Each structure stands twice: as structure tokens, then as C-alpha cells.
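Records of this kind hold a single protein each, on a pair of labelled lines. With that in mind, the following record should read easily:
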Amino acid sequence: MAGNQRWPVENKIFVGGLSQQTTTDSLNRHFSKYGQADAIVMMDKTTGRSRGFGFCTFATPEAVSAALEQQQYVDGKEVQCAPCWEKTGMENKIFIGGLGESTTSESLNSHFAQYGEATAIVMIDKATSRSRGFGFCTFASREVMMKVLASPQVVDGKPVECRVCQPKGEQVLPPSSFQASKVFVGGLPQSCDEEKLRSYFKQFGVITDVTIMTDKETGRSRGFGYITFEDHRSVELALANRTTNMIDDKWVQVKRCMPKPQPTGAGGKGSQTGLAHMNSAQLAQFASITAQLNSMLGNFGMQVQPQAKGGCDGKGGFLPNGGGCFTNSGGFLPNGGCFANGAGYNAKGASKGSKKGGKSIGYV
């Protein structure tokens, strides 16, 4: 039943049997060999001594699998490592997205009641009292939830997306992930090969690809892999069964695969600099400063001309050797990097030349 169901905490493990000599620093150093890690040794508040156990949260599920696959020795002492589980159970609950404006909590309940006992709710905007286009449904059993996830759902004549609600603490994924058909499987036993992995997960739907990651030097399994399904609903079924997925009597962790983030930063795709990265308040502040600057320059008969190398990137904003985008009235150009009749900046010093004979000013 839903009340007895427990869920693993994302990328977090329990570490027991620690030596009294082990500190949070030494535990962090030990697990850092698997990548970014955040470990802590639990201390007794009264005595200040170690309670003999701690926790470690990793940046990736692959790191978790690698740590759990091997016997760990911390500060010369054998310790026990295991996945962390939520203290309270996670209900058999699903998210329903793409609801029509006409769908109410009553009609949503009526729809899912055909599968078994269920309690549904449509989320309403408090300001407008209109539907926010999504809702949730909690089922009396996992079996009922599995039946719902196994087939397309149409509520009040509109196709909707259903997915398993994420355990508390797990990273929230964007709506684009609803159609994802790939899962990560961690904690695989060494006895599990790709054929065995495919054999187990085919119960959730047609599989198009199975990969188990191996060590390049030894050829041994690294304890995790990936499965790509033909239908995204198969992902939901595998996740709905996540607390009981067992291979060779060993529980394996199933998680959604997240899309790789777009590169950011200087020179990278998707990078934003200067004006393109400012909010409305910052833009307003710059507009005010520019207007004052133009007024001051006008009193001295000065004007600054756009420079050939003055910093126009055509995409809005400041370049390392250039200026910002301003109109002659103190506003901003949406796609420039130069002043039309204001002040420009030049990393190489004062700018040269003026069409109207006024002095040009540059800032190093």
C-alpha cells in the first residue's frame, strides 16, 4: 500500500561502521575519488564524539553506483555503504499535465476512478480562479497506478501527459522531459550483462537500446547502465516500479535520464553577456545613467562616434574591448554594442575621430 512505500533519496548514501578517527574532512577526501561529493560524520551533541556513521551526497548517480559497487575502507577501517531512503513513504501519485480549461477536480476524479480507487485534484490559480493546466492523482495501490501509466490518457477530450511524481529531494525536471524514453539504471551486480538487463526491463515495454558501462582497463562492469525504450510511457512504468526493481536478488536504482545542459560562458553557445543578460531594473538604471552622461557631454560639445573596433557584437551587450548599446536619447539598442550619440568604451584607450569635429572620448 502507498503508506508503506519508501523511496531512495537522490544520489545519497549511508556510511556505517566509521572509526572514531574518521572526520567529515577525511570522509570527504575518501569519497572525492568518485567525483564531487559532500560527506558528513554525525556527531553526538553531548560528548562531541562520532556516532559511528555518516552520509555522503554525490553529484551524479554514476558516482553513487561506483561507490556502492566496491567495498569501502575509510581510514583503514571497513565500512558499510547503502542507499539512503526517505523516512516517510511516497504515495502512488502521478502528475497530470496539459489539462483543458474545462477539466475540474470532479471530472478528473471521474476519469481515473475507472481504473480503481483514486483521489485527483486540479491546481487552480488563486488570482484568477482558473485552472493552471495541471493536477495530481493519488491511487490506492501501485497496481492501479501502473494500469493508468500503461496507456494513453484522454481527459475531457484532451490528451494529457501522466508521469510518476518524483521523490522528495529529487531534482525537478522540465516538461520537455515528459517524452524522455531513456533511463539510468544503477547498482547493477557484476553478474548482470546487457542481455540480462534487457530481459528484466522488457516487461515495461519495447527496448531499442541497452548499454552497460564498463571499465576501459579491466572490462568489468562499472555497476550502471542505460536503457532506451521505444515509448516514453515505459519510462513511467519502470519508475512506478522503482522500489521493487531487482536483478539477481539485488535492488537496482532507476532514474530518468536528464538532457545535457547547454554550454554557457564566454564563447559558448547559449552564453549571454551585457544588456542581453540584464533585467528590466538594470536596463532602466543604465538608461538613466546614459541620459545623464549624454547631457554632460553635450555641455562640453563632445560626442562619441561608433568605433570600428568599439565592441559591437550584433547580439546585444558588452564585449571585452567594446561598449554598450545606447541611442542618442539615452535608451538602449536591442542589437548593438556601440553608442549612437553617447559615450563609448575602448579597451585600447581614447577613440579617434569625430564626424562633427567634437572630441571623442574613450575609456581604458
Q: What stands out?
A: Residues 92-164 form a domain with the Alpha-Beta Plaits fold (CATH 3.30.70.330).
